[in-house]
């Protein structure tokens, strides 16, 4: 079935070749083409952009679109081979490693990358998607934004799907969109981390999870699943849920409330290593020793966690490998080859922030 973008492109091209529009004749406006073909502005722009690259159309700033002398030999093909990469962040935490993995594979294959970040907000995700479409990228590698919440940008994703633009998700995927993905078994990994703490003798454990990202929801579910398998002490479980824009001070206040309870937690599992490092700093400021008084674990194997004091017990994240696998998959999609989803099974990285509970 012909997609919308191809329908617009082929329709305009046929009108030009058939002589409906003569060389240097003005073409309908974007708005008129949107009505004519019942498509979005982004579909029209992509179709017109391709025809412009193929020398069927030229533009005059402020004057509109016109028919190019398509009979002329314009044979200097320029394939930018540009891949758009959209992540929630770029320069911090695990993202430089992921992007590096993407770039290493794509650059060897002759592709360049155009990077954008959303700061985990849907408004910026929308702007990033529009900029990528306007830049006529050949494919997209995207980390979903606030993936556990309803997405107001589904119209753009549907447009991408209708246009058959090769697209792949990393770290997570939107449940309502069936693009291929490379992610991590967050639920199973957190469940294994909990079992490790149980084996160390911990029973009263506090879990802190960011729940506007689907990774956080799955990790929280792993926490709950682990306690479900040990109903004899599941009553000792406690959970703090927060969203990405919530202040750290509010989280610390809630942690402090649990520390005052008679069955105070002997261990805290955190959504990720960034949070775990902040929690350890907060506990130290309260005169609480880690791990002697409270064990703390993270998730993602952030490089700084290895050198922090105490070094951080965490779950591994296949950062560079994820980037490389995503890049290999997008190349397959560009070549119209089948791509299977990839889900990593991370290992526990045992360090010094979690120890066996004494006197149990």
TrEMBL record:
<keyword id="KW-0804">Transcription</keyword>
<protein>
    <submittedName>
        <fullName>GntR family transcriptional regulator</fullName>
    </submittedName>
</protein>
<dbReference type="Pfam" id="PF00392">
    <property type="entry name" value="GntR"/>
</dbReference>
<dbReference type="InterPro" id="IPR046335">
    <property type="entry name" value="LacI/GalR-like_sensor"/>
</dbReference>
<dbReference type="InterPro" id="IPR000524">
    <property type="entry name" value="Tscrpt_reg_HTH_GntR"/>
</dbReference>
<dbReference type="InterPro" id="IPR033532">
    <property type="entry name" value="AraR_ligand_bind_dom"/>
</dbReference>
<dbReference type="GO" id="GO:0003700">
    <property type="term" value="F:DNA-binding transcription factor activity"/>
</dbReference>
<dbReference type="InterPro" id="IPR036388">
    <property type="entry name" value="WH-like_DNA-bd_sf"/>
</dbReference>
<keyword id="KW-0238">DNA-binding</keyword>
<keyword id="KW-0805">Transcription regulation</keyword>
<feature type="domain" description="HTH gntR-type">
    <location>
        <begin position="2"/>
        <end position="70"/>
    </location>
</feature>
<dbReference type="GO" id="GO:0000976">
    <property type="term" value="F:transcription cis-regulatory region binding"/>
</dbReference>
<dbReference type="Pfam" id="PF13377">
    <property type="entry name" value="Peripla_BP_3"/>
</dbReference>
<dbReference type="InterPro" id="IPR028082">
    <property type="entry name" value="Peripla_BP_I"/>
</dbReference>
<dbReference type="InterPro" id="IPR036390">
    <property type="entry name" value="WH_DNA-bd_sf"/>
</dbReference>
